[in-house]
Design a protein that fits this description.
The chain has helices at about 10-45, 50-60, 60-80. It has 3 helices and no strands. By secondary structure, it is mainly alpha-helical. One of its GO terms (molecular function) is DNA binding.
Length: about 80
């Protein structure tokens, strides 16, 4: 984009905007699918809140997760928990 002459390539901009809009639509569809899976799991007796926590933990590096757990245990012990 050439800001000195205040021109914008409309076709190029439109292509980027349309790609982003398509991806946002796909993201919403995937989020709905994930929500449905949590609903199914809840319907069979699983706790979605705990499942989300497990997914969050599995996403972390194992070493970093262990380090955080050790700090959490240390803080809880300091609080007498």
């Amino acid at each position: 984009m050439d800001m000195s002459s205040n021109t914008v390539n409309g076709g190029h901009l439109r292509a980027f905007i349309e790609r982003i809009e398509k991806l946002e639509e796909e993201k919403r569809a995937i989020a709905d699918d994930i929500k449905d899976v949590y609903g199914e799991a809840k319907g069979t007796g699983f706790d979605p809140k705990i499942m989300r926590k497990i997914i969050s933990l599995r996403r972390q590096d194992k070493h970093k997760r262990q380090e955080e757990e050790e700090i959490l245990d240390l803080y809880l012990a300091a609080l007498g928990e």
